[in-house]
What we know:
The chain is an alpha+beta fold. The chain contains five helices and six strands. The protein has a single domain (2-116), classed as 50s Ribosomal Protein L5, Chain: A (2-Layer Sandwich).
Amino acid sequence: MRIVARTPCFPTEDKEKVRQALLNIFPQSEIEENENEMIARSDSGDKLRQIILDHHIRDTARSILLCGCVGKRTFFRLNKQVASVGKISFVEGAPPLGSIDVEIEAEDLDGAIDFLAESTVEVNE
């Protein structure tokens, strides 16, 4: 699994707080910083998975991950301010301070989604 999370960094924002928001969700990531944006790259979704489990939002997260699928990738947005306190909130559109735009790529995308947000619905065969 390869994860890339991007967020704008506005002149009015504290860059260290923006960096910390990314690290709160993707703590094992390498952060690349340029003038207007920070990019986190990671191979681990462990913390994201744990947050999803801890906040009992597997079904919502799974639905969003599945809706964002294109080929071997899925895309979604997280609220940057909520991430700054170590939680997640999925967003649509473009919030005033920008969002954290997340792209997850995996050879086995279904398996990656199952890992991050396992279905709570039992399938009877």
